[in-house]
């Protein structure tokens, strides 16, 4: 009788089915998937807060630089303004123009390269948000599939489909999916919102870069030395061609008898 009552007593033991207990006591692969998704969800919020602070700071410094650069009409005034705003994206672009110099075409290439650098600087951690948003649901789905497989294996081992046998494995599977969505949805929303702000910021910098290149190129042209004798060489006078000398053949005839 004692041996027959042992399985019934084991089944009668209450099983905690709350989310925390299922996460802490989940099986090996599901445990790894769940805690990886929890780390990804925390990372999403950390990146979102850091990017919001970065974009807000860049937008504020760029707005101040744009406001003051509207009154800078000379090369020296623009360069001195950029030195006072080295943290603004536009200020860094102008400083790069001041370091290189050259004609308008060269300065335009320098400005494009500086804009690429600013795009890379503003887009730090954005690929991480995109990767978490796209991969987290599939990682959670992997945990779900493994949890359901584990439930069927328990049914085969226990030869019973009762709730105490199936519930823990199915609970682990569903929690893996839920945590995957908990990581992916905020990552997707944060990526779209931050990407819109970054695009607006860089579009404004790119639109103003043409004016900065024009001011820098005008100063470069003005600094070039003029040729000797004035800005342009004096026009040369056209000289008439010299007349060719005509050879005359009117020679006196030789005396008689000399030609013999």
TrEMBL record:
Family note: Belongs to the exbB/tolQ family.
Any one Gene Ontology cellular component term annotated for this protein: plasma membrane
Membrane topology: Multi-pass membrane protein
Organism: Chondromyces crocatus
Keywords assigned by UniProt, alphabetized: Cell membrane, Membrane, Protein transport, Transmembrane, Transmembrane helix, Transport
Annotated compartments: Cell membrane; Membrane
Name of this protein: Transport protein, tolQ
GO biological process: protein import
Region (Disordered): 224-260
């Amino acid at each position: 009788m004692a041996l027959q009552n042992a399985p019934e007593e084991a089944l009668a033991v209450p099983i905690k089915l709350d989310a925390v207990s299922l996460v802490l006591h989940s099986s090996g692969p599901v445990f790894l998937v769940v805690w990886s998704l929890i780390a990804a969800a925390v990372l999403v919020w950390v990146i979102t807060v850091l990017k919001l602070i970065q974009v807000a700071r860049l937008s504020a410094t760029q707005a101040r630089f744009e406001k003051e650069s509207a009154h800078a009409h000379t090369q020296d005034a623009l360069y001195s303004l950029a030195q006072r705003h080295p943290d603004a994206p536009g200020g860094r672009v102008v400083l790069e123009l001041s370091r290189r110099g050259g004609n308008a075409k060269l300065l335009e290439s320098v400005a494009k390269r500086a804009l690429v650098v600013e795009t890379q600087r503003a887009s730090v951690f954005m690929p991480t948000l995109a990767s978490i948003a796209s991969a987290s649901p599939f990682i959670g789905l992997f945990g779900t599939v493994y949890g359901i497989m584990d439930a069927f294996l328990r049914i085969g081992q226990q030869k019973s489909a009762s709730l105490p046998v199936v519930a823990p494995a199915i609970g682990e599977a569903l929690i893996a999916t839920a945590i995957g969505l908990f990581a992916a949805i905020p990552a997707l929303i944060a990526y779209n919102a931050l990407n819109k702000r970054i695009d607006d910021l860089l579009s404004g910098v790119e639109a103003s870069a043409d004016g900065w290149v024009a001011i820098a190129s005008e100063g470069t042209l003005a600094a070039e030395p003029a040729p000797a004798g004035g800005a342009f060489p004096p026009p040369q006078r056209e000289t008439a061609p010299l007349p060719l000398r005509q050879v005359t053949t009117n020679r006196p005839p030789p005396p008689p008898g000399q030609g013999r």
